[in-house]
Specification:
With about 300 residues, the protein is α/β, with parallel strands linked by helices. Helix content is about 30%, strand content about 15%. It is built from ten helices and eight strands.
Length: about 300
């Protein structure tokens, strides 16, 4: 197994002169952050489609072994609410993700709190998600005409692709939802949101995806020593193929047995510059190396 612990995004004004050295050029922030932590979520892809040259630049700025998680575009999750998404999904896949090559990690699909669980709609969405880059390329070739001249379709190798889903409506506390995720090997995001949104720890894939937004104040509070050690214990259990004994789970059915699982963890408590430091503390609590490449 491998454990990747990092941050959600890297471009934050309050971080300058605190986490980032004073005088560091904004253009070099990813270069710096990617040498402090082994993985980062790309936030920009959530707000708008990025261009191939941006993905290529991010690849070039980061060291070997580094890994990006890519946030799926909100046009699909927030605006279309999973209706008629074939073309928009093709656009996302054609927009430049192949430029990340071996640094392409999981896709994160985040849903807003007004989206409720709809079994038919979610199964259709999950069935469209490519499980490898070859399938992603086949779907990317169906991009919409407005993307002409703004696509990258150069796949360097066939690689597995992973997907995780973060939900924020109580209707997802449903055994049918957990069963759907397991059917398509899509991870349920374990999201710590200071109690604002549903918290579930069901294991639904051959990997785990955690987003730590703050345990007391959303996006703002840091994690104390006890909280860091508690998360370290949970991660140890998941990475060794098990589950935390005190886990909050929806389904009474146990997940498929595994000897190990990869775990991805992203701190999103960025407002007061806690995220990068909390990520480092969790890495240290697990006895891992901060260098890119994850630790097994």
């Amino acid at each position: 197994m491998a454990i990747f612990i990092g941050i959600s995004g890297w471009r934050y004004v309050p971080w300058r002169g605190v986490f980032y050295p004073k005088g560091l050029a904004q253009a070099r922030e990813l270069d710096y952050a990617s040498r402090q932590l082994p993985t980062i979520e790309i936030n920009g892809s959530f707000y708008s489609l990025q261009r191939p040259e941006s993905y290529a630049a991010w690849y070039a700025a980061t060291p070997p072994g580094f890994l990006f998680a890519v946030k799926g575009n909100r046009f699909i999750t927030h605006m279309l609410k999973l209706k008629e998404i074939e073309g928009p999904l093709a656009n996302v896949l054609a927009s430049g993700i192949f430029e990340l090559r071996e640094k392409l990690g999981p896709f994160l699909w985040q849903f807003p709190e007004m989206v409720k669980f709809d079994h038919e709609r979610f199964e259709h969405f999950l069935s469209l998600l490519p499980q490898d880059t070859e399938a992603a390329l086949a779907r990317a070739l169906e991009y919409q005409p407005r993307m002409e001249g703004k696509v990258s379709l150069a796949m360097d190798a066939k690689r597995p692709m992973r997907h995780a889903v973060e939900v924020r409506h109580e209707s997802f506390r449903d055994e049918r939802f957990i069963a759907l995720l397991r059917k398509y090997n899509v991870a349920l995001v374990v999201a710590d949101t200071a109690g604002k949104w549903p918290y579930m720890e069901d294991v639904t894939a051959d990997f785990m995806y955690l987003r730590l937004h703050g345990d007391e104040e959303l996006y703002a509070s840091g994690y104390g020593d006890a909280a860091i050690e508690r998360w370290a214990g949970k991660i140890r259990a998941w990475s060794m193929g098990g589950q935390p004994e005190d886990g909050v789970r929806v389904s009474p059915k146990a997940p498929a047995r595994r000897k190990s699982r990869d775990v991805y963890v992203y701190f999103d408590n960025d407002i007061k510059v806690h995220a990068p430091y909390d990520a480092k503390r969790l890495i240290e609590a697990l006895g891992l190396d901060t260098a890119p490449g994850g630790t097994s």
